[in-house]
Design a protein that fits this description.
There is one protein chain. Helices cover 22% and strands 31% of the residues. It is built from 4 helices and 8 strands. The strands form 2 sheets. A 6-stranded antiparallel β-barrel has the order 1-4-5-8-7-6. Strands 2-3 form a two-stranded antiparallel sheet.
């Protein structure tokens, strides 16, 4: 960031200072979550869902808002009237490979239970001092079906109900 892009009072050291302040705020009031970035080999399955492998998980600090109010959502530029109970987290700006489709595992408030998995569905950042990125998260639902059952249709192990026709009814009456 040079002064030709911004005003003369804004310097690169200012941005670095804001990023350090955010990281200190996360240490003081934040929550540690597990972050998994998607690998480059991305593809979409038949339902339009992103099916990808992820990098190794890393622990990241974030500031978590479970159900933001309409005023907060409107300030972020999101549709606040839907009331879809979005989950917002604010993460450091320099988080590696952050993009839509990345996973965050948020720990459970209950003892000895596994955390909930969320996928990044939208991201926003401020233009002037980009010290953090706000991510809108959507829950990842677990499927009990095996991938081979839902994608490999070479085996026919399904029972099929056949409707009776008029000819079948005539044969039963003759018996």
């Amino acid at each position: 960031m040079d002064n030709k892009d911004t005003g003369i009072l804004i310097h690169k050291s200012d941005v670095e200072l804001y990023r350090k302040w955010f990281k200190q705020a996360v240490k003081l009031i934040g929550l540690n979550v597990i972050y998994r970035a998607p690998r480059e080999s991305k593809q979409y399955d038949t339902w339009g869902e992103l099916d990808t492998a992820y990098y190794e998980p890393i622990v990241v600090g974030c500031i978590y808002q479970d159900h933001p109010d309409q005023k907060t959502a409107k300030k972020m530029g999101w549709n606040a009237e839907l009331g879809d109970n979005s989950v917002l987290i604010v993460v450091p700006y320099d988080l590696p490979k952050l993009q839509e489709g990345a996973l965050f595992i948020i720990p459970s408030g209950l003892d000895n239970s596994e955390g909930r998995v969320f996928k990044v569905i939208n991201m926003k950042v401020t233009a002037m001092y980009p010290s953090e990125i706000t991510c809108e998260l959507g829950p990842v639902l677990k499927s009990t079906a095996d991938k081979s059952d839902s994608k490999d249709f070479s085996q026919r192990n399904m029972a099929v109900v056949v409707e009776e026709t008029d000819d079948d009814e005539d044969e039963e009456e003759d018996d």
